[in-house]
User: Fold this.
Amino acid sequence: MPPRPMNDDEVLSEMNKMVTFIKQEALEKAREIKVKADEEFAIEKAKLVKQEQQAIDAQFEKKRKGAEVAQKIAQSNLTNKSRLKLLQRREEQLQELFSIARTSILTFAEDEGRYSQFLEGAVVQGFLQLMETRVTLHVRGQDADIMQKAGEAAADSYAQISGREVSFELETTLSEDCAGGVKLVSSSRRITIDNTLDERLRLLEDKMLPEIRRDLFGPNENRKFYT
Assistant:
């Protein structure tokens, strides 16, 4: 038996059911789309927040390192400035000490006995270094007489030591500003031996400088070995 056709009320009821179903499906789909969109938004937001945080962290780290470098540079400059100031002060103290020594040798020549012995010893030493038969002695003008006597005594001592004879001539060519002493020049004038008090003091300063530094300022911690 064929089904009977639906009346208007039944048709309307079926249509309402279909509309309700479609609407429910649409709502479910909309909810799914919203949930998925919210998830994607949350993921994208977290990604953007993380990227921004990383950028901020990188910028902060860069600034921090820059600040550390600037601080180290400033500290290094301050340390170097302090070290240079200390070294300058130490150099001033050394020069002051050497200045006192130079002042002392200026009065050494005033003691005729000691000065004569020094001149004789300095000339003997020069004679032995040159080992020549004729030598020129250069002295200050005021030392000509005492040098003549010291030179003769030195020639005798040289003869006893070396078994050789030596003669000398005096030239008063040393500056009056010189503290004293003598320069010996070979006959060929190619060799000069500087036995002036000024040169002796300079050599002594160079030789004693490391020891003087240690005595005045203590060991240098930047050096492992000392001479």
